[in-house]
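Moderator note: this is an archived Q&A kept for reference. The question asked for a predicted structure of one protein chain; the sequence and the answer are reproduced below.
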Amino acid sequence: MEKIVECVPNFSEGRNQEVINKIAEAIKSVEGVVLLDVDPGQATNRTVYTFVGEPEAVKEAAFRAIKTAAELIDMRQHSGEHPRIGAADVVPFVPVSGVTMEDCVRLAEELGKRVGEELGIPVYLYEYAAKSEERRSLANIREGEYEALPKKLSDPKWKPDFGPAEFNERVAKTGATVIGAREFLIAYNVNLNTKDKKLAHEIALNIREKGRYKRDANGKIVRDENGNKVRVPGKLKAVRAIGWYIDEYGQAQVSINLVNYKVTPLHRVFEACEEEAQKLGLRVTGSEIVGLVPKEAILQAGRHFLKKQGRSTAVSEEELIHIADLSLGLSQLYPFKPEEKIIELRLEKDKERLWKMRVRDFLNELASQSPAPGGGSVAALSGALSAALGSMVSNLTFLKKGFEDVREEMEKMGVEAQRLKDEFLSLMDRDTEAFNKMMAAMKISRKDPEREKKMEEASKEATEVPLDTLRTSEKLLDIASLAIEKGNPNSISDSAGVAVMALAAAQEAYLNVLINLPSIKDEEFKGKVKKEAEEILSRIEERASEMFRRVKEKLEGEI
């Protein structure tokens, strides 16, 4: 799985377009980073940038943006409606896919250290990166804003995590920066068949985590023994919500910030709104994603609604997204375009991928004189075909009468097959990319002292990719075995086909490992890889051949 991190820094400049553009250019200057959005605000005098990419690339882009802001923004001249403490006010890292919150905390710490040391800016860590509970809250750190910074820096309790603990000339210009790690925030609106904002807000009060103030029989807010207002919590954790009316749509919405979709998923919010709307005689007509959403949040919804329909979730990601769109009514107000709204698909949108090609176009490219794509990509494609067959058997068994006892097992098998299919599709492109890197390294001048190092690195990568294909091929045999043993007997030839195609993938991948080993000088690496590859291939050949033999004998006996 590709590692993707999002960064959503807020800078204290929303009016000077030249400064806004230069910060954007600093972000875009880093290879592997995609700047998704730039949102300036005149009244707040603040601009929010959204960019994504590989973790290290995103960290570098964040540093360059902070450095640019420190050069161009003078906090002594700044004013705006939004709370702020520095030129680069807050810089959060957000895990999207293939990374953990711990990974994002590490990024925050490393960036904070570099900003403090190289740029001389006081840095406070917040949210998941905070070193103390008091510093988890951004509001706590930013209390008093930039104007209170001299006093804050003189207080030992508020010594920065990195950078100077003094309000010198440099800090007077840049202010402080708050860096951290947080969950992805999904902006999500649920549409109602009413124009009444009050009814929408009533639903919001009932579902949001903080709920509403408790009132007595006379409508007066109830207070506790200390005089504090008493709250009645709402239904859903990690949910903020209000009700509003949108004239453009001619209907009211429950406007929601879902601050942790792993705690409360999209489909749970949607259904909670349906439940509350029904109590008020209303109907939910659909919903909309504002901005971007992680793919997993949409896939969760697709799985949920398929399960409610009694259908198997062992389907493609495209089908899960389609079911989520239909079930959540994401296209009610305007067409929901996954390639625009889902972060991972947005990143893939303009990339050329072998798996995006039509079958005939891929075969024509394969048959040309170009050395890539080649055998390594074919091995991965064979693995993908094997996995797809496994998923097909799963789905043909899932609803077959008389197979209720294995339904759950078949669904799990199919879900795993779908996962492996996507992994193999990724390996198709990885193999071609590795080959191209090898070709690029070979073109480096022999006089270049870096050539030998680059050649070794490229050769190892060109070996590791087919080795990954080989490793992944072995996982297919568990699917083949289960499909043959418990799958729909009418599909037993397809079940055996899982093993047949897995064997083809493994044998071709093994040969691609071998052909790259002679160009590697690291003897320890070569020995370790060769031994592992031989052992995996031997196991696959033995198991796949046995499965093929058993099914062949069974089918021949029925003639």
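Archived answer notes: The radius of gyration is 28 Å.
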